[in-house]
């Protein structure tokens, strides 16, 4: 018969439904249907209990041993029998469970819970499987990548809830085990890419997914642009903001992203790509795939942080296309290069960059020259057209920085620790959620009776916003239901050939360049004498004003 069992807390990150068990029809089995235990976290164990399978009863006994602080060893193990005894010689503690009539279910036949030995607390702390058992208990805590659950939290919870006193290293190993149970082996994640990309193309027709491997089948690059983003791009301003952010998984790497802004001024991710590092080859491959996917539109431009590889790649793939620099990146360079970070220069620089007329621009550049001539020369060498609005060869609107790329990096900060398959799926789910939320907001917008043509570009209209998110990102089918051709399943993808991340706590933040390390924090400078730490208004050495006595 087919026995369907559902439970809201079946396992971590599941919907609560178990797969159907193939069990022969028998009156002896039917009497246990209402008593079958499906949870491995069973707190009370006794003779006569029936478990859904051998794996569940084995996991339950591991948890039971941790909670009661003792060790056992397997005396007999087969597809029909599971027999345990205490690790101590001559101890009468034992446990025995066998299958029911050749079915998958196991019943506890004999359980003597009384120990006649003294090997409990002293030897339990050295038990090698403690990390695995505790790790399996805390798996639900890590389902959401944004959840912060530290080894210290594991120590506290295990002590308060179960009376189990773990060392920090045991708690840390338990966390690593939990992540391994949840995400699998990092190297196995690469082997799932061919079938995952196949399902993406089948589920989202019109999407562009590319997988590039080395001659030895080792992973190199993976590019994804979903059909929803491709469709929405036609209704957005032709300004592309690109950036790269480092990954913190076992095989590290870099995730390159391209984004734009919709009619409401929010982020629309266009494409994401996992590569080995930010170099000429990886950026060139990324822009080649991007151009093949999105083509080239009139007045199209690229905004970035002036990475040399980006500049070189765009000049090759998009010859003649304007490439603008992020205003904040240039300001950071000014601060580190000239040690100039006072408020007056900061305000002058950003006001100059945002100038709408040449007269305004020239006037403000003269003031910058008065503060420090070196800064003016530096801005001239970069090229006014790369950072000034008034000198731009195309209308880059108000996209003067790469902030939308930085915002996307911030959203994916925790996900960058995931293996590559889980990272790509996180990005897809992020797009799915954003598309639904933004479409709802677009349909809630008030309709104005006046015609927009007299006031703004069509890129800012309600119609463009609706068309941007017209095509939704539907959920992928469960992996167990994927119908993948055999030649896709047979495709081999090995992890990257580069060095794997060393064991230990991973580096959370990106490695800063030398100039950023040398640069001091922002300091306020006085307009009177140039002193730091105060401004002109609070200066104690300011000349006193003479008072006219009538």
Q: Give the rounded overall mean pLDDT.
A: 79
> Please, how many helices?
21
Structural class: alpha+beta
Strand content: 5-15%
The unreliable regions are 1-30, 120-128, 513-520
DSSP, total strands: 15
Q: Please tell me how large the radius of gyration is.
A: 31 Å
The separation of the N and C termini measures 109 Å
As a percent range, the share of helical residues equals 25-40%
Q: Main β-sheet, in a few words? A: 7 strands, mixed
Shape: elongated
What is the spatial order of strands in the main beta sheet? 9-10-13-12-11-14-15
How is this fold's topology laid out?
Elements (H helix, E strand, L loop, with lengths): L1 E2 L17 E2 L4 H4 L5 E2 L12 E2 L2 H15 L3 E6 L3 E6 L7 E6 L6 E7 L8 H4 L5 H8 L13 H12 L5 H16 L2 H6 L1 H11 L4 E6 L5 E7 L1 H7 L5 E8 L7 E8 L5 E9 L4 H15 L6 E4 L3 H10 L5 E3 L1 H12 L4 H11 L4 H14 L1 H10 L1 H4 L15 H9 L8 H25 L17 H7 L17 H4 L24 H5 L32
Parallel strand pairs: 3-4, 11-14, 14-15
Antiparallel strand pairs: 1-2, 4-8, 5-6, 6-7, 7-8, 9-10, 10-13, 11-12, 12-13
Explain what you see.
It is a single chain. It is built from 21 helices and 15 strands. The longest helix is centred in the last third of the chain and has 25 residues, at 420-444. The protein is of the alpha+beta class and 550 residues long.
